Amino acid sequence: MEAIASSRKTTTKKRHIFDAQAYLASCGVARKVVEYRRSEKAYSQGDPATNVMYIQKGGIKLSVVNEVGREAVLAILGPGNFFGEGDMAGQLVRMGTATAIAPTTLLVIEKKEMIRVLHAEHAFSDRFIAYMLARNVRVEEDLIDQLFNSSEKRLARTLLLLARYGNQEQPQKVLPKVSQETLAEMVGTTRSRVNFFMIKFKKLGFISYDGGST
Predict the structure, then answer these.
(1) Which residues pair with 189 in a beta bridge?
(2) pLDDT, tens digit, for every residue of 77-123?
(3) Range of the structural domain that residue 6 is part of
(4) Number of domains in the chain
(5) Which of 50, 146, 194, 197 has the smallest set of CB atoms within 10 Å of its CB?
(6) Is residue 99 part of a domain?
């Protein structure tokens, strides 16, 4: 009886999990599917902000460049993540650049259609709001990480986030190809320090590492 009850609870729970990707792919949302090669830009800093994007496959690096040309990596996003939502808050131009870190498939939803769907489809609205709240928490955690943790701990946390550790039943065993330069930009340290810590993590048996990228 306990096994049956447990099974029913699991089934009920699964029924209440909203699959945003399946919804976007099957309903009448005005959208287009766009594929990008590795290193190809989905949009660039300063482009008009007119749509929201959803990652079906692959990964996206969000970055900004300052006046002297120095790049800072804000986040690495994977399947199931939204990005480019700044236009929903009134941004007229992109505040940063979105670059594919692997062959990537995106669902591109126009701003007006996104607003319509958020008002009309409560399940989708709940999913989107939950994602944005989680993203806000992540930003706060990143700030605390930068302020109080050593570069070694920041790198370890970054690798766990890239593996989506804690976000699914089985974390990814193979990470997207991310260069040491990109990891250094994300962590806020030098490439040589990243290389030193990656070798250390490998010797400790925490990672499998070929010496060039994750």
Answers:
(1) none
(2) 888 889 999 988 889 999 999 999 889 999 899 998 888 888 888 88
(3) 2-120
(4) 2
(5) 146
(6) yes
